[in-house]
TrEMBL record:
<dbReference type="InterPro" id="IPR000572">
    <property type="entry name" value="OxRdtase_Mopterin-bd_dom"/>
</dbReference>
<feature type="domain" description="Oxidoreductase molybdopterin-binding">
    <location>
        <begin position="81"/>
        <end position="228"/>
    </location>
</feature>
<dbReference type="Pfam" id="PF00174">
    <property type="entry name" value="Oxidored_molyb"/>
</dbReference>
<feature type="region of interest" description="Disordered">
    <location>
        <begin position="1"/>
        <end position="23"/>
    </location>
</feature>
<dbReference type="InterPro" id="IPR006311">
    <property type="entry name" value="TAT_signal"/>
</dbReference>
<feature type="compositionally biased region" description="Basic and acidic residues">
    <location>
        <begin position="10"/>
        <end position="19"/>
    </location>
</feature>
<protein>
    <submittedName>
        <fullName>Molybdopterin-dependent oxidoreductase</fullName>
    </submittedName>
</protein>
<dbReference type="InterPro" id="IPR036374">
    <property type="entry name" value="OxRdtase_Mopterin-bd_sf"/>
</dbReference>
Length: 251
């Protein structure tokens, strides 16, 4: 008897009849398991990617790494080389200048103060935008009131511990309810690559006004142009006159 060279394949228990192309149960379950593993690993992979991009941006003299997207659509920028890390033991925020009471705040001191949470769109002057971003921290006005601003004061100058970046606001701008000394972003402690442990957050202005790695707040008699203002950027960097005025901050 001649054997059929192409015998019918035995039926696949997970398919219909072994001759068609339906995906078997085992294959389907395997695909679902692989997808679930990918979803579970995604946050870890994103954090690793963000850390790599952030570290590269700090050591990139060309600034080209700032063109790469990071977590949530942010870009990482630094105007210097490597920026030191500061934390619970060595971070201090100084408030001085035209004040009656010079102050030096630790992270624990700042956390103990009333906290305000804002949710706004972050807008960079270079064009990228991150909608509905939460920042939380102490209103700058609270720190100024505690220090006792002198009558001749007109502006506030900000210094950063990267050793180069600086910014300024008028005193009126600094006292707005939507200008924070931020400790948290997106409901997490502010990471180093995003300017942590403490940064300025001027919600109604382009993001270059929100100085990263904040170390000193100096009350002055006039506005001193910041790092980017000296390079042609606007001193008053409003995104829109209504931005930051329509929503009430929560405390």
């Amino acid at each position: 008897m001649t054997q059929d060279p192409n015998p019918a394949r035995p039926a696949d228990r997970d398919g219909e009849d072994g001759r068609g192309t339906p995906v078997g149960r085992r294959v389907l379950l395997g695909m679902l398991a692989a997808g679930a593993a990918g979803v579970a690993a995604a946050p870890l992979l994103q954090r690793a990617y963000d850390s790599t991009i952030g570290a590269a941006a700090q050591k990139d003299p060309t600034g080209l790494s700032g063109l790469l997207p990071a977590g949530g659509g942010f870009r990482y920028y630094s105007v210097t080389g490597s920026v030191p890390h500061k934390g619970e033991r060595d971070y201090r925020l100084t408030v001085d200048g035209l004040v009656r009471h010079r102050a030096s705040h630790r992270l624990a001191d700042l956390r103990a103060m009333p906290q305000t949470r804002l949710v706004r769109d972050v807008q960079c002057v270079t064009g990228w935008r991150v909608p509905h971003t939460a920042f939380e921290g102490v209103r700058l006005a609270t720190l100024l009131d505690a220090a006792g601003v002198r009558p001749e004061a007109e502006a506030v100058h900000f210094t950063c511990f990267d050793g180069a970046y600086r910014e300024s606001l008028t005193l009126e701008q600094a006292r707005r309810d939507d200008v924070l000394v931020a400790l948290r972003m997106q409901d997490r402690p502010l990471g180093h690559d995003h300017g942590g442990p403490v940064r300025l957050y001027a919600a109604p202005m382009y993001f270059y006004k929100s100085a990263k790695w904040l170390s000193r707040i100096t009350v002055t008699d006039r506005v001193r142009p910041g790092y980017w203002e000296e390079r042609g950027y606007d001193v008053d960097a409003w995104v829109g006159r209504s931005n930051g005025r329509d929503d009430v901050p929560t405390t």
